[in-house]
Amino acid sequence: MAIRLETAWDAPDVRKLLIAAFGRAAEAQLTDKLRESDAYVPQLCLVAEQSSVIVGHVMYTHITLESESNPAIQVLALAPVSVYPAFQGRGIGKALIAESLSRADARGEPMVVVLGHPEYFPRFGFVPASTLGIKPPWPVDPDAAFMVKTLSAYRDDMRGTVTYPPEFDEV
Ligand SMILES: CC(C)(COP(=O)(O)OP(=O)(O)OC[C@H]1O[C@@H](n2cnc3c(N)ncnc32)[C@H](O)[C@@H]1OP(=O)(O)O)[C@@H](O)C(=O)NCCC(=O)NCCS
């Protein structure tokens, strides 16, 4: 398995992957829209290839974290991450997430926010965002599904509520 940056040429294959992994088109449409937006962080969007076929993908966008006492800062949102059902459980998701988190840290990003499976993401160091004083823009149930992974540039006064780009409103 090889991991590399996604390119514009990968978009149709990534779209098919997302539809297969999520069983619906919403995440594929979101990904297409985010790629066109200012929030897109192409340096962190990776694909996993097996025999030159894309079997996994992870996307990052910039979101805003702000509070009454703190100025707004940009942090990262990890979404979506996907692996073809037939290839799941072989460490491809782990490899994509670990590599992208390492690249995010090297870029000096302070943290990564994810809304995801509370049984999966803690293995990468994600903790419930509420424990760090970071709130989602909408109600999340369970609370533990809204998680944050802090990176080297994190400071513990980075608190507040995150705002996602409008493309996320439609998912
Ligand atoms: C989540 C996903 C990306 C993980 O990729 P993967 O390549 O299967 O993951 P890995 O092989 O690295 O890890 C497998 C582990 O993930 C766990 N896992 C996979 N899907 C999970 C889920 N929905 N909830 C909780 N744990 C899950 C497996 O139980 C396994 O755990 P184990 O290591 O303790 O046995 C993949 O299952 C997927 O594409 N799912 C559908 C899309 C999705 O839900 N994306 C995440 C949205 S935030």
Give the tags.
single chain; 171 residues; alpha+beta; Aminopeptidase; binds coenzyme A
How would you characterize the overall build of this protein?
The chain is α+β, with helices and mostly antiparallel strands. The protein has a single domain (2-170), classed as Aminopeptidase (3-Layer(aba) Sandwich), CATH 3.40.630. Helices cover 22% and strands 30% of the residues. The chain has 3 helices and 9 strands. The protein has helices at 11-22, 26-35, 92-106; strands at 2-5, 46-50, 53-66, 73-83, 111-115, 127-128, 134-135, 146-150, 160-163. Strands 1, 2, 3, 4, 5, 6, 7, 8 and 9 form a 9-stranded mixed β-sheet that branches. Strand 2 (46-50) and strand 3 form a beta hairpin. The radius of gyration is 15 Å and the shape is globular. Coenzyme A (COA) binds next to helix 1, strand 4 and helix 3. Residues 21-22, 80-83, 88-94, 116-117, 119-120 line the site of coenzyme A (COA).
The helicity comes to 10-25%
Q: Unreliable runs, pLDDT <50, ≥5 residues?
A: none
Number of strands: 9
Might you state the CATH topology name?
Answer: Aminopeptidase
CATH top level assignment: Alpha Beta
Kindly report the name of the CATH homologous superfamily: Gcn5-related N-acetyltransferase (GNAT)
Shape: globular
Q: Count up the helices.
A: 3
Number of domains: 1
Please state the CA-atom Rg, rounded to the nearest Å.
15 Å
